[in-house]
From TrEMBL:
<dbReference type="InterPro" id="IPR003439">
    <property type="entry name" value="ABC_transporter-like_ATP-bd"/>
</dbReference>
<feature type="domain" description="ABC transporter">
    <location>
        <begin position="2"/>
        <end position="204"/>
    </location>
</feature>
<protein>
    <submittedName>
        <fullName>ABC transporter ATP-binding protein</fullName>
    </submittedName>
</protein>
<keyword id="KW-0813">Transport</keyword>
<dbReference type="InterPro" id="IPR017871">
    <property type="entry name" value="ABC_transporter-like_CS"/>
</dbReference>
<dbReference type="InterPro" id="IPR051782">
    <property type="entry name" value="ABC_Transporter_VariousFunc"/>
</dbReference>
<dbReference type="InterPro" id="IPR003593">
    <property type="entry name" value="AAA+_ATPase"/>
</dbReference>
<dbReference type="GO" id="GO:0016887">
    <property type="term" value="F:ATP hydrolysis activity"/>
</dbReference>
<keyword id="KW-0547">Nucleotide-binding</keyword>
<keyword id="KW-0067">ATP-binding</keyword>
<dbReference type="InterPro" id="IPR027417">
    <property type="entry name" value="P-loop_NTPase"/>
</dbReference>
<dbReference type="GO" id="GO:0005524">
    <property type="term" value="F:ATP binding"/>
</dbReference>
<dbReference type="Pfam" id="PF00005">
    <property type="entry name" value="ABC_tran"/>
</dbReference>
Length: 205
């Protein structure tokens, strides 16, 4: 469980004030908000990439003590242009001490044809497929995903939702995500939607 207590975030402007919530395993949480309202900043706070006030713990341990349990790759700007898919998948498997099959994800997401190509030659869709594959290879209990389906066609998005439902149904995972595809997200199992607005975040139907 990710336990958030009295979380207050201020970036260029106030984003969230005194927010408390328990993000439980075996559940998917969608964070909704207007563009620029702070969805990405909230995920960054969960991984100590921005300053905040309050307390965030993973299974009663700090993020620093729990890094191997949490996977967050904010967007494709984090990639190094000269590395390739295999470089990143191998690194993810090593750092998160995963036993998950890289070959399975390469084949499932259609990465095989460009797995050794430098990332600087990738399209947006190719980069997003690699990011998704990294999440599954990490096999981390806590997966934080920021607009991860950007640049993907509908068929690939449907495959992604299918795999997320598999994770929730069969594994002890907690997934927190943001997405512009609100109607598609409704297909996900054990889904709770939280709306960020007016410095608060509350459950919505």
């Amino acid at each position: 469980m990710i336990k958030v207590e009295n979380l207050t975030i201020t970036s260029r402007q106030p984003i969230l004030k005194a927010f408390s919530f328990n993000f439980e395993k075996d559940n998917i949480y969608q964070i909704m908000a207007e563009n620029g309202a702070g969805k990405s900043t909230f995920l960054r706070a969960l991984t100590q990439l921005v300053k905040y006030e309050g307390r965030i713990v993973y299974d009663n341990k700090s993020y620093k003590q729990s890094k191997e349990k949490v996977f967050f790759f904010e967007d494709n700007s984090w990639f190094s242009d000269d590395l390739n898919s295999l470089d990143y998948l191998d690194l993810t498997k090593k750092l998160w001490h995963s036993t998950h099959s890289i070959t399975k994800e390469i084949e499932f997401w259609g990465i095989d044809e460009f797995r050794k190509l430098p990332i600087k030659k990738y399209s947006l869709g190719m980069k997003q497929k690699l990011i998704i594959a990294m999440y599954f290879v990490s096999d981390a209990p806590y997966l934080l995903m920021d607009e991860i389906t950007n640049g993907l066609d509908q068929e690939t998005r449907e495959k992604f939702y299918f795999r997320l439902n598999e994770l929730i149904d069969r594994n002890n995972k907690c997934i927190i995500l943001t997405s512009h595809y609100a109607n598609e997200i409704k297909k996900l199992h054990n889904l709770t939607t939280l709306k960020l607005e007016n410095l608060s975040m509350n459950e919505v139907n």
